[in-house]
Amino acid sequence: xxxxxxxxxxxxxxxxxxxxxxxxxxxxxxxxxxxxxxxxxxxxxxxxxxxxxxxxxxxxxxxxxxxxxxxxxxxxxxxxxxxxxxxxxxxxxxxxxxxxxxxxxxxxxxxxxxxxxxxxxxxxxxxxxxxxxxxxxxxxxxxxxxxxxxxxxxxxxxxxxxxxxxxxxxxxxxxxxxxxxxxxxxxxxxxxxxxxxxxxxxxxxxxxxxxxxxxxxxxxxxxxxxxxxxxxxxxxxxxxxxxxxxxxxxxxxxxxxxxxxxxxxxxxxxxxxxxxxxxxxxxxxxxxxxxxxxxxxxxxxxxxxxxxxxxxxxxxxxxxxxxxxxxxxxxxxxxxxxxxxxxxxxxxx
Length: 349
Description:
Elements: H1 10-16, H2 18-33, E1 37-38, H3 39-45, H4 51-63, E2 67-72, E3 75-80, H5 87-94, H6 99-107, H7 112-117, H8 119-128, H9 136-160, E4 162-163, H10 172-180, H11 185-202, E5 205-206, H12 209-225, E6 235-236, H13 245-251, H14 258-275, E7 278-279, H15 282-297, H16 303-315, H17 333-347
Antiparallel strand pairs: 1-3, 2-3, 4-5, 6-7
Helix pairs in contact: 1-2, 2-4, 6-9, 10-12, 11-12, 14-15
């Protein structure tokens, strides 16, 4: 060997095998110096293989037509074959499907002009693979059918994928999923125009607008209903837990005194420590608990007063409409509006 390294084609290795590709490249290099090389020389140059292994690889290469075996001066010699030495390769270069094959393609509902466009790709693919066959017609028929099926799948995808329509609305199933998960239907309806506008401006195409809308509503509802913790990961209750500033910001918009909430904290911590449950927003849970205790301790109040607390808590996280129609009795309208403005700035609502 003139070089200690052998480089070979990845495509050829994938087609005929790694060992076959290495030995074929060796024979091609030798052909530059010698017309053919003896089996003894091959064994000597490739000592990393046993003699039997080399014989098996050569046998495979001869069967595939890539290597020629001959006897010269009483010794077996091998050489790589030139492309021009293979009559079947010449036939392949000139090959075109006959009428019978084209008729069969037509029976599958495949246009003839589509089949004609595949001929060059078909011949190129088989030349790269060094494949040989006595029935190129059958191979071509299978090749065209596979290409046509792929085209049909891609065309169907493109038909389903489209921009969002300006009058788009979620279907009944999407709404039902959201409502069953506890999301207010009025909230869902109010989010539709913003959702449509957002995706219209992005000019993106999709075939899963309902799924995108469900994900969007769930995110928005989370912002609307929950007081966000610093860490969105679920965590267990600890003895040191205390509600954060967001909680007290919301509490200021109600008639519930801060001292009342602080006095309710020990019982709340003890209960949830015993359950061992993990939540992403203990502030939201504590607000529900404080509200329940406050209403329980004020059983004598009118139903309207109880409903008013609900409305004030809900309005404090309202995304679309910042106006509060039922202002707290102990806070004038100007103070409520200022509190809401601060909350919106803080949480970027």
